[in-house]
Fold:
Amino acid sequence: MMALSRKMLEQEPGDIEALLPWYAAGTLNAREARRVEEALARDSELAKQYAVIREEYAETIGLNETLGAPSARAMQKLFAAIDAEPERHPTVLFSLSSRISDFFAGLSPRTLAWSASLGALALVLQAGVIGAVLVKNQGATYQTASLSMNEPSLTRNLAGDAATPPRALVRFAPDAKIADINALLDNYHASIVDAKGGMFRLQFGDRAMSKDEVSGLLSRLQGEKIVNLAVAAQ
Amino acid sequence: MQVLYGRHHVRVFRFGLRLVRDEQIAEDLISEVFLDVWRQAGKFEGRSAVSTWLLAITRFKALSALRRRKDAELDDEAANAIEDSSDDPEMAVTKKDTGAVLRKCLTALSAEHREIVDLVYYHEKSVEEVAGIVGIPENTVKTRLFYARKKLAELLKAAGVQRGWP
Structure:
């Protein structure tokens, strides 16, 4: 009985060990994240396990991203069913304030911090552009690295995909500076399409790339000091 | 509703698809999920993120759909997913192939283990949120993921991949 209990205890994860997956996903609160960081710094076995978890994390995202999106049939079916429903007044859930609070509640603290910083940067850039346009009165085009409030509408339009520039989901290192991220975006001719849960969806250039080119691009990205994770995305 | 659908339908679809492993059923699921949301919008208490609420409804509907399918059929699917890798003559797994084998093993996990791995890694849900979606205590969430990872390690080992853990 005692041996059994000991065996069961040995199979249970330790407190910190059990938190490693959430640390990898960036969903721990600041206090727990600090506890894990400290433990990783002093325990090489734990650090080895964390490396394994990061691999699992990256491949789980990669696997899910390959699953594609539902066809238009699902949406048609839904809205046909809604049309057939008795009329209702959608005031409870879909008020503007609840949408806004939901959007910000859905962001992790890290994403929120980045979003605020990037939002401020976008404001400065946009102010500069507006000023330049007013002064020179030219029709120059400009695209900021601003965040989109909406999930991109993904379809299975293969013809459209063929001409779409490549995209990747990227998680930046927690200590990456805004200036470093801007430099990286410039170097890769990339722009931020959207962000969710600490991950940024980047689009590279304005033309489609071959599979080899995309693979090379992802390898280079993954090698960047400020990039923790980079996987192909739609 | 269009905004809500546009923002969440892909992730809801992928979560459902990973559970039911059938695109047709997964597409039917998302229509049912969002229709329920439309009908029950007043019941949303705002204490959790909308995405967490959606995933909880999706899970409930996916499990109902799974119950309608024969258990034997599911067991065969899971077994085939593992057997396929061991039948592969290129079993000397190179580092480049490790990712592909890992993805295959992630697919071969049980539905219970797949959902917890996806919720934590892909849907980036906290311990508390996963507990709310799956309906289990927070400590069980942690141990269930731990055992899912151990199972994954066993599948990888069977496929010739040693990662130094456990």
